[in-house]
Amino acid sequence: MLIIEQIINGISIGSIYAMFAVGFGIVFSTMQVLNLAQGVYATFGALFTYFALTLIGVPFWLAAILGVTGAAILAVIADQVAFEPLRRKNIGMLGAIIASIGVWIALEEVASILTDATPIGFPSGSIPRESISIGGVSILQTQVLAISLSAIVITAVYVLLHRSRVGAAIRAVGFDKSSAMIVGVNPRTMIVSAALLSGAVTGLSGILLVGGQSFNFTTGNVLLLQGFAAVVIGGYGSVLGAALGGVLIGVVQTMSQSFISSAFQDAITFGLVLVVLLYFPRGLLGTTETVRA
Amino acid sequence: MKSKRSLHSLTGRKRSRTAIVGLAAALSMVLVTGCGSTDSDTSTAAPTETSTTEEAQSGRAINVGLLAAETGPLAGAGGAFLSGALIGQQLVNETGLIGNGNTINLVIQEASEDPARSATVAAQIAADEQNVGLVCCILSPVAGAVSAVANRDGLPVILYGATQPGLAQPPYIFRTTTMPQFANETLGRELSEETGLKSVAYIVMTDNEGIVSQSESFKAGFASAGVEDLGTVEIVAKQTNFASAATSAIALGAEAISISATQAEAVGMVAALYDKNYDGQIIGLETLTGVGVFDSNPDALDKVPFPVYFLPSEVNEAGQRFVDAYNAEYGTLPDSFAAQGFNAIWVMGAALAGAGVEPTRASLGESLNALTEVPGTIYGTVKFENGQMLAVESVKIVSYSKPDGVIVPWIAP
Amino acid sequence: MNPQTALALSALSFAIAGSVLALSTYIALWTGLLSFGTVAFAALGAFTTTFLINNMDLNFWLALLVSVIAGGIAGLIVGKVFIKLATHWLALATVALVLIARVLVVNFPGFTGGSGGTVVPVKLSIWELGLLLIFVCLLLSRLAQSKFGIAATTTREDPQVAASLGVPVARVRVIAFGISGALGALGGVMLSTQLGYIDADTFFIALSVTVIASVVLGGAYHWAGSVVGAAVFTGLPVYISQFMTHGQFIINGLLLLVIIVFLPGGLIDPVRWRRWRARRAGPGKSSQPMQSSSTDAEVLS
Q1: Distance CA C104, CA B334 (A)
Q2: In this complex, which of A131, A250, A257 lies closest to B275 when CB atoms are compared?
Q3: Is residue A218 part of a domain?
Q4: CA-CA-CA-CA torsion sign (B259, B262, B263, B269)
Q5: Which one, of A33, A23, A54, lies nearest residue A239 by Cα?
Q6: A280: closest chain C residue by CA
Q7: CATH label of the domain that carries residue A28
Q8: Which residues constitute the domain of residue A210?
Q9: Burial of A158 (0-12, 13-18, 19+ CB in 10 A)
Q10: Are B242 and A261 inside 8 Å of each other by CB?
Q11: Any chain A CB within 8 A of the CB of C33?
């Protein structure tokens, strides 16, 4: 039963990677923004939840909502302060990467000051942490929460982006801003919506990552690496692809750690990334990419 | 004419805006450079009594550099080391430890535990002939970088936090870090004897050499008490999936699981084992100490044993004096990081006492090299061997206790 | 020595090493490729040199030569393999390379000292560092005027047009990667001599971020930009940290934002200067800039 328990462990952490990847992918594949500050949004999602739990004392579900909202607003602020001026001047990806690094460094220091650089964790009893035993396999309630919430949220994002007017508008703006404007889409609103959505989703992934653990102001950064790997493997431009990529990475990591060696787990993950990039450029479920002449 | 002017004003404004930004940047750099010189010679916020004690009036203030880490990823621990060091400065001067009316004056520079910045700042400290020594270094690569500078410039250095084996290198590099390896071995042996433990499994963070050597010392300790080693589960520094490692470790079926990892990962492992309802004995290590650690996961950490060299509730006279002074200044009890910060300054003071009436780098170096033993520290009498301090008298097995996380001697269940 | 002088010398030494690393990234960017791979080549160079000195008693300069050649070969291989990737995928592939490199460094302790790191027994003086930098700058200014330089600039501007003009785009890019590898190795060795001690985390994400920032902020359109950018982005934080402890990273982050918004072409931006001169000459003498500095060419926008 060891294998089954490990597979569940893998799917659980994979769901969290998947959620982060989806959030990251919303701005990366739809808006072509490589936002390196996304990991800090995850940290702040957990941080705002922590403050809601300890300073206001609301139940966990409400604190999580506040945390997600906080992360979303943070993402919008960062977008408007750092990326909007660049967009207005038509500065390309290179400049945007630098801007995102600036945001990353600054926000991480803010998180460090807010937490006094010490570890923090959700208070006892705020989040269900029991383990459930089914036929010799032990599953944690936090894992059930992670898997189910991720599935729901990712499906919701997919539906939003691919089956709703708002989603179509967001994707239109990402594809070609001027054409979108011609058909009456307000690019500013769509960009802000995309930032809001991506901030919310990555914030939630941060909350699920740390549920039951202690965390600190650097915790979100590990998600950034896994998230970008998931987006690459899963396919550019595809929400479901990014999600699948995340789960795959979670499972592969877990399997390699338990049965091969944990020392090489990063090499395996990023070796996979290279293989996919070189031989399966569209990833698992990617859309074809057009390069404008 | 009109169009020319308007075009000019448009571009002129843009051009001057860019020029202003550039000028502002240049000016601020110049200002910062100019201001920097005044800050670097004095210690900040130091609770010293140099001007009021009688002995001080007849001696000199001896400058010793200290690399602080109040920002950056080690800021939590760095703050504790600094707080302890400042109390060290205070008590060394109050008790006149150095003798000849001399007092110690810490020249504190922020280096964020970054190797490049630390090397630069250490070079700066070494360049000032007034500085006779340097205290620093929580991370081993930082210790390595600073050691290179110190060896080149003949500046004696006391390392107070880095734990990788082999860092102490006389004639210039000394270390007062209370080495966890000895404590771990002691815990392995004593805990097994007390509880009659038969088997143990290990969780080890394998990409950190200091941690790996800590795990070897645990293994040696348990082995010496006849406990069977049922296997090791490996984790890495950026571990996210603690549940998976917990599953693997529990599957080894041992009566106890000994964890060797840095702070965040160690807490993560303890929490995962707790959540998975592991019914054996979870054994921790010194990296579990630190401000905020208990509060971040109180249920899991409660009653998990780990070894320390310093426990505020069970101290000798010197320790009590330290605890009282620290509490008076900061309103909390010191942890083992603060204790190491304090002790480094105390040992520096003791070495300066043996460096003559007007200590120089050379005489301080000789004094440090000649040290074999320092009595009256917060760890009791400590020995020095090849530049490394050994605090053999003071290992205790402790654990956190609910509800406030006070560290108390561990009681076997 | 005056402490302020020591501080300046040390900051300058790190800035020079940083310049070479930045130039390694710049070379690839010259042909339109964003590569984060410099730090992986730097690791290769630094660990090779250190290994050769510590374990084989090789003379430093000889070891340096071997490392630079090894870096060049590695660069050529990586270039050849990655060349078929479109530009922003190539960037991600180079990120993956850096991450894999770290795992390799940790897991081959016989060669690299593993996670415990290894001591670098050589220190280069400021003159030696300066000479190496001057040598690299001379190389680059010669390249700028050579066929390679023109081919590179044309390729960056628009690879399709360049190809139609007969520029061997793929070959130019692979060569650029080779030079990038060699320079990366050189920069890595230079940095390691200033640190005195290197481990797996020395050549990782933090350094990568500094290098990219140096190139872009210094000016991604001229090789001198990388040198200036490294000077500012390596030296400035040292001075800022003299002045304030808490909040210094906030300042660094905000500085990045301010510079990229107001001077998007970086500090050294020949196109911006050309535009200024053109405007100062009056609207009659128009000169439409050949390339706009505020937009990155092709897929980099």
Answers
A1: 40
A2: A131
A3: yes
A4: negative
A5: A23
A6: C85
A7: 1.10.3470
A8: 2-279
A9: middle
A10: no
A11: no
Flag if B234 and A253 touch (Cβ within 8 Å): no
- pLDDT tens over chain A, length 293 residues: 789 999 999 999 999 999 999 999 888 877 777 888 999 999 999 999 999 999 988 899 999 999 999 999 999 999 999 888 888 887 777 788 888 988 998 999 899 889 988 889 998 888 888 888 888 888 999 999 999 999 999 999 999 888 888 888 888 877 777 777 888 778 888 889 999 999 999 999 999 999 878 898 989 998 998 888 898 888 777 888 899 999 999 999 999 888 887 888 888 889 988 988 888 776 667 665 554 44
| Alpha-carbon gap, residue B154 to B170, rounded angstroms | 11
Paired residues of A133 in beta bridges: A138
Gyration radius from chain A CA atoms = 19
Number of residues assigned to chain B? 413
**Cβ count within 10 A of residue A289:** 14
Residue A128 lies in a domain: yes
Q: Which residue is closest to B78 within chain A, CA to CA?
A: A117
Inform me whether the C-beta atom of residue B159 falls under 8 Å from chain C C-beta atoms: no
- What token pair was written down for C56? 């084989």
- The whole-angstrom separation of Cα B160 and Cα A152 is 50
Cβ contact, residue pair C96, A106, below 8 Å: no
Residue A131 bridge partners (DSSP): A140
CA C119 to chain centre: 24
C-alpha–C-alpha distance, residues C266 and C2, integer Å: 33
Residue B104 pairs in a beta bridge with B62
Report d(CA B204, CA B249) in Å as an integer: 11
Q: Which residue from A86, A266, A269 is facing C261, i.e. has the nearest CB?
A: A86
Judge whether A59 lies within some domain. Answer: yes
* B39 contacts C243? CB cut-off 8 A: yes
Report CB contact under 8 Å: B241, A253. yes
ipTM score: 0.89
- Report d(CA A109, CA A253) in Å as an integer: 30
The answer as to whether A286 is a domain residue is: no
Taking alpha carbons only, the member of C244, C296, C254, C236 closest to residue C271 is C296
Report how many domains make up chain A. Answer: 1
Report the residue from C115, C240, C279 with minimal CB separation from B208: C115
Which residue reads 């009791």 in tokens? B380
Give φ, ψ of B261 to 5 degrees: -160, 170
Q: Residue B399's beta-bridge partner residues? A: B408
CA dihedral B239, B278, B179, B323 (to 10 degrees): 110
Closest chain A residue to C100, measured at CA = A267
